[in-house]
Design brief:
6-stranded mixed sheet, 8 helices, 14% strand
Amino acid sequence: MTMSKRVLHVVSNVAHYTDPSHPTGLWLSELTHAWDVFAARGYEQHIVSPKGGMSPLEPRALKWPLLDTSAKAWLDDPERMALLASTARPEEIDPAGYDAIYFTGGHAVMWDFPDDEGLQRITRAIWEQGGVVSSVCHGYCGLLNTRLSDGSLLVAKRRITGFSWTEEILAGVARKMPYNAEAEMKKRGALYEKALLPFVSHVVVDGRLVTGQNPFSAKATAEKVAALL
């Protein structure tokens, strides 16, 4: 009998932009679409965040038309909502037990993902043991500063995508951003790609690195991860 594959989802603990009057958090559908894909294949799934505990939700993602069937089903399920109220801390995670890591997005992650050494440790271990490293939308901020054991950046010279600066401008939030994630990726030597049109599903696969551009790419990203697993 084969052991079930195990996937670790990463979510944010941040509840607002630099200005506390502008709330943000996890873009729920980016978690739920992937969760549904992995659940359908019988994978075991867990959730981690930089500080553990509660992961706030991005309010804009909970409104029509962005609140889709998958996200609404999660909101309506107390057991699943409890998973977001009590996420694990990085030090509680043994990366050796996971086949893939999946960084969710929402603008919140721009603040707490890039420099979290616990998340970097887990990501490095999963990559170096032959696992899949993946992200969707702003989740790629979690890969910005992850270095491998030889000191090189994980993203250097690798094809990658994530929420584009054009999409930030079109979403009307560019001025609130702490940095330009697309530009920061390019500075680190990543080979950044994006779809010709904004806000359409777009996934880039470079070996065991799988990245999706925006919230509408979550399901397709998870399917590419599952194909590799």
